Amino acid sequence: MGLTGIQIFKYLPKTNCGDCKFPTCLAFAMRLAAAQVRLDACPHVSEEAKKVLTEVSAPPIRLVKLGMGDRTIELGDETVLFRHEKKFNHPSALALLIADNLTDQEIEQKIQQVNNSVMERVGQKLRVELICLQERSADPARFAQVAKKIVASSEAGLILSSFKPEMIKAALAETAARNPLIYAATEENYSQMTALAKEYKLPLAVFSDKGLEALSSLAEKVAAEGVEDLVLDSGARSSGRMLSDLTQIRRAAIKKKFKPLGYPTIIFPGEGGGDALMEAARAGIGIMKYASLIVLNSIEKEVLLPLYTLRQNIFTDPQQPMQVAENLYKVGEPNQDSPLLITTNFSLTYFIVLGEIENSKVPSWLLVADSEGLSVLTAWAADKFNAPKIAKLVKKQNVEEIVKHRKLIIPGYVSILSGEIEEELPGWKVLVGPREAANIPKYLRDMTSSAAL
Predict the structure, then answer these.
(1) 337: which DSSP letter?
(2) For residue 363, which phi and psi values (nearest 5 degrees)?
(3) Per-residue pLDDT tens for 291-313?
(4) How far apart are CA 168 and CA 175, in angstroms?
(5) Are 428 and 422 spatial neighbours (Cβ–Cβ below 8 Å)?
């Protein structure tokens, strides 16, 4: 049974120093009891108190790490069911499945697919994080050979997939330093798989398709043998059961504090039948409903981009919109006669506007105003994108020393600000740009061709 906030408070220093980012020790204790903050947020907890509170403050879903260095993948460490309560901490990691019975050429092509899977969206680099090597050859030497090739050719994380301990052992001789996930312990092989995980100090997946009670029982057995870093696979492959199992596992861990299910999860959406589109749909369910690891059979760009976008949206903190820094940005190689546009610092708005200016091939200046991460219309409605602030920004960025003309292009949706801005900036003329970013290229090309500036 977890401690209450009042019980936790008794172990805290009671200095109300605020170093934990909360105004009082009691407020911190209440958040700790609700698993909404970690104990190490308080730098003044005594060692005696740590011994008592560490178990209490542990997240209901264990943090498990795969990979090494800059490519370390963190799974779990989640504390809530819904993202409006508190942001989800670790995005679902994507993996590409590679079978060891493919030809060397096919394997190399798939490895390169993973290496080339990086896409940039609103300033973030998105990629397929792992390769799942699946044993189908029944040949330990071949399995180890392909594992060695993957490690030599890619920095991606690694999942070694086989229910045969001898296959896993052969591959670990080549890959253990990469900190791979061993997949998977079953009711039949868990003693041998647990021994390998303990020997190499590696995380271990636990598989049972006989229901969540059987899965939790197997996880308890494995944990009792000394392996704590586990990943759960309920065997769900259909969309309905996948949704049901993932939700029940998360609810049991978060709401019931049921420790045997308090681990990250893994799914294989391509094993449920159907084409790549159906696989992507199941993967989307996994992203939205708590899958920590998603192993895909296909990572074509038309599959990846929607999944990247969905993942990015789900795992962005809804209380802290993504923002770019307030500044005057160059687009191309602008000079003192180049157009000057303004927008807000909501990342999505900025990168869409930036992209359309780049598409126009017209070198320009883009002035970005701090709107606390709000889009243009929302910022205007909240009075965070107004004439006085815009005028102040123009002066702060020394725009009059950078551009010779005195013309500022504002978004069409806030045309109402044009007169107010001209009052705040004597000698300036405000031009009303397009309402939609997609019309920016034509607007800028028409403007420059007609020598409007």
Answers:
(1) T
(2) -55, 130
(3) 999 999 999 998 899 999 999 98
(4) 10
(5) yes
CA quadruple 43, 45, 51, 55: dihedral sign: negative
DSSP state of 60: S
- The whole-angstrom distance between residue 295's C-alpha and the CA centroid of its chain comes to 16
Tell me, rounded to whole angstroms, the distance of Cα 153 from its chain centroid.
24
Q: Which has the closest alpha carbon to 253: 21, 22, 80?
A: 80
Phi and psi at residue 47, to the nearest 5°: -65, -35
* φ/ψ of residue 344, rounded to 5: -95, 175
Structure tokens at 45: 């907890």
**What are the CA-CA distances from residue 368 to residues 273, 318, 336, 437, 453 (Å)?**
48, 21, 18, 15, 21
Token output for 213: 């009670």
What's residue 1's pLDDT?
A: 41
Long-range CB pairs of 199-202, under 8 A, 24+ apart, other chains included: 200/172, 200/176, 202/172, 202/176, 202/229
Which domains does the chain carry?
A: 5-57 (1.10.15.40), 64-314 (3.20.20.20), 327-449 (3.40.50.11600)
Distance CA 282, CA 303 (A): 12
Angle at 152 between CA 95 and CA 171, to 5 degrees: 70
Contacts of 189 (CB under 8 A, 6+ apart): 163, 164, 165
Q: Which residues of the chain have pLDDT under 70?
A: 1-2, 35, 55-57, 450-453
Is the distance from CB of 94 to CB of 129 less than 8 angstroms?
yes
Type of residue at 102 = L
CA–CA gap between residue 182 and residue 102 (Å, rounded): 21
Structure confidence at residue 452 (pLDDT):
47
Six token digits for residue 21: 């980012």
Angle, nearest 10°, between helix axes 301-314 and 276-288? 10
Q: Cα 231 to the chain's mean position, in Å?
A: 18
> Model pTM?
0.78
d(CA 380, CA 388): 12
